[in-house]
Specification:
The chain folds into three domains: about 210 residues, 2-enoyl-CoA Hydratase, Chain A, domain 1 (Alpha-Beta Complex); about 200 residues, Alpha-Beta Complex (2-enoyl-CoA Hydratase, Chain A, domain 1); about 35 residues, no CATH class. Strand 3, helix 3 and strand 4 form a beta-alpha-beta unit. It is built from 19 helices and 16 strands. Strands 1, 2, 3, 4, 5, 6, 7 and 8 form an eight-stranded mixed beta sheet that branches. Strands 9, 10, 11, 12, 13, 14, 15 and 16 form an eight-stranded mixed beta sheet that branches. Helix 3 packs parallel to helix 4 and helix 11 runs parallel beside helix 13. The protein starts with a helix and ends in an 18-residue tail after the last helix. The longest helix is centred in the first third of the chain and has 25 residues. It is an alpha/beta fold and about 500 residues long. Bound molecules: hexanoyl-coenzyme A (HXC).
Length: about 500
């Protein structure tokens, strides 16, 4: 066989692998690795690396291998910007990660790191390739180390589109965002069979580690979509908000539209009754450029809302308490969710807008015993540590520790505004009056009447935004309908914010 024929043979072998994959994957309602990459990248922009890499020869004969060793890797364009990606092919040894397979992933990780471009992993894998033993474990270790090295330098995104079992889960867990599909993707460290054997517990793959479980219960997944196409298109959408690396300026949109006619609605959105909820998402949507809010972790800890958006064409990160869920209290999961998002934004120079309406930390034995102290401290640490422009708007409640945590002035908030409906104090009126006036109330004949009068007095004298404004802890009490314009100006003023922290190896966030 001459070289030309050898070349043709190799190409045919690749085509054959793809044809097999099409049949097998489509039967399971899944796409092939190449089909997935075609959705991710701008048409015709994919440049493949290592298509003919051969699998490492094991002592146990594995005849079912193919060129490329079960992973397609390379570089493409997303909205014209360079992005690296790898897509595992489940039809080759269950997408398991052998030595050659792992080296290909490590190679694109290296290139993405050196060239300052995001990397997307499309995962569909049975984990470490059993036949290759410790070699496959070493390949995983290299990938994990690369994940950690790139963290905070280039955005790393994982999309789980099939099983991610064993070692396959830890690289996604080290990346910035995890996308999953409902019903066709699963993540677990040990599968249902092992759980049955060791613990005698019955659970199926979906119940153990399906997309919805990880998006709503464990919080491992930030996004879950009904099908692969929507999941991958959402990755393209997310990338449009992000810089390619931590030194690159944020992408700018020139097409700025906003809800001009709806700004006045903000003057009425806070209910008269302080205990009545409203949907903070509406506030976010009205303040930001039209249809630009891209929520992260939507199904997890819904008492805090986080996501990206654009204000006057520029990317910002939004962290907002949601009074509709658990009255907007901060619990363990909300603290974890908020802290992770704040740290991502800080790493990539994305300014933060904080919309605050929080009565405090969620009380309860369960929360205390599960460590609300250390988990709440993560959110506090994240806000204190973040050096990006930070603007807080207190919409309504801002009590106690929660006031402090949500980027208050003394934690380093650059601008702190409040709406006239703000209630800023050590604790809510009812609780405060009971403590401060305990003996007076216990002796009173007209206890209810007195309590009501004292509560009104507390609201007028203490639990309002004006005292904080007089003390300079609130920069200005603003009209809700003016908020968008004020935010645009304030973020403009802060756009040159520079901060050089003292040299240290790293802080010690309470993990
Ligand atoms: C080699 C594997 C494999 C693996 C699957 N295959 N996983 N080959 N190494 N880890 C092969 C199967 O032998 C089969 O080959 C083909 O892939 C498809 O697998 P099926 O089991 O038929 O598919 P399905 O029923 O869809 O089940 C998928 C699965 C299951 C849930 C992923 O295969 C499974 O449980 N695999 C093992 C998962 C696991 O325990 N991995 C090791 C984890 S330890 P044929 O030839 O029949 O088509 C690990 C250590 C790293 O990863 C830890 C680092 C922190």
């Amino acid at each position: 066989m001459n070289q030309k024929e050898a070349f043709e043979n190799r190409l045919n072998s690749l085509r054959q692998t793809e044809e097999n994959a099409v049949q097998k994957q489509h039967l399971k309602g899944k796409l092939t690795a190449r089909e997935r990459l075609n959705i991710l990248f701008d048409e015709g922009s994919f440049f493949e690396i290592g298509a003919f890499v051969e699998p490492y020869q094991t002592t146990i004969a594995d005849k079912k291998t193919a060129f490329g060793d079960g992973v397609v890797a390379g570089r493409g364009l997303v909205q014209g910007r360079s992005v690296f990606a790898f897509a595992q092919d489940f039809t080759v040894s269950g997408g398991s990660l052998g030595f050659a397979h792992g080296n290909k992933i490590a190679q694109v990780q290296d290139m993405a790191f050196k060239l300052g471009a995001p990397i997307v992993g499309l995962i569909d894998s049975g984990g470490a390739r059993i036949q290759e033993g410790v070699r496959s474990l070493s390949a995983y270790a290299t990938i994990f180390r690369n994940n950690v090295r790139s963290s905070g330098i280039i955005p790393q995104i994982s999309v789980i589109l099939g099983p991610a079992a064993g070692g396959a889960v830890y690289s996604p867990a080290l990346t910035d965002f995890v996308f999953m599909t409902d019903k066709t993707s699963f993540m677990f460290v040990t599968g249902p069979d092992v759980i049955k054997e060791v613990l005698n517990e019955d659970v199926d793959m979906e119940g153990l580690g399906g997309g919805n479980v990880h998006a709503s219960k464990s919080g491992v997944a930030h996004f879950v979509y009904d099908d692969e196409e929507h999941a991958i298109l959402a990755v393209r959408k997310l990338l449009a908000y992000l810089p390619s690396n931590n030194f690159e300026p944020l992408p700018l949109s020139t097409n700025v539209q906003f809800y001009e006619g709806r700004q006045e609605y903000l003057d009425r959105i806070i209910p008269d009754d302080a205990n009545r909820p409203y949907d903070v998402k509406e506030v976010i949507q009205i303040l930001l450029d039209k249809d630009t809010f891209f929520e992260v972790h939507e199904k997890f800890a819904a008492n805090i809302m986080v996501g990206f958006g654009r204000l006057n064409g520029k990317t910002i990160g939004v962290v907002a308490n949601q009074p509709k869920v658990l009255a907007g209290t901060l619990d363990i999961n909300a603290s974890l969710k908020g802290a992770r998002f704040v740290r991502f934004c800080d790493a990539y120079n994305i300014p933060l807008l904080i919309l605050e309406d929080v009565p405090g930390f969620l009380p309860g034995v369960d929360q205390e015993h599960s460590g609300i102290i250390k988990h709440g401290a993560k959110l506090l640490f994240a806000f204190c540590e973040a050096t990006v422009p930070k603007i807080t708007v207190i919409l309504r409640k801002s009590y106690g520790g929660a006031y402090i945590v949500m980027s208050s002035k003394n934690t380093g908030g650059d601008f702190n505004f409040a709406w006239p409906t703000a209630e800023i104090a050590v604790m809510g009126p009812a609780g405060a009056v009971k403590i401060v006036h305990r003996s007076e109330l216990s002796k009173a004949e007209n206890r209810e009447e007195l309590e009501k009068a004292l509560i009104d007095k507390y609201k007028n004298d203490i639990a309002n935004p004006f005292r904080a404004e007089e003390l300079g802890l609130i920069d200005e009490v603003i009209k809700p309908s003016d908020t968008r314009n004020i935010l645009i100006t304030a973020f403009d003023i802060l756009s040159n914010k520079q901060y050089s922290p003292l040299s240290k190896k790293h802080g010690n966030i309470p993990l």
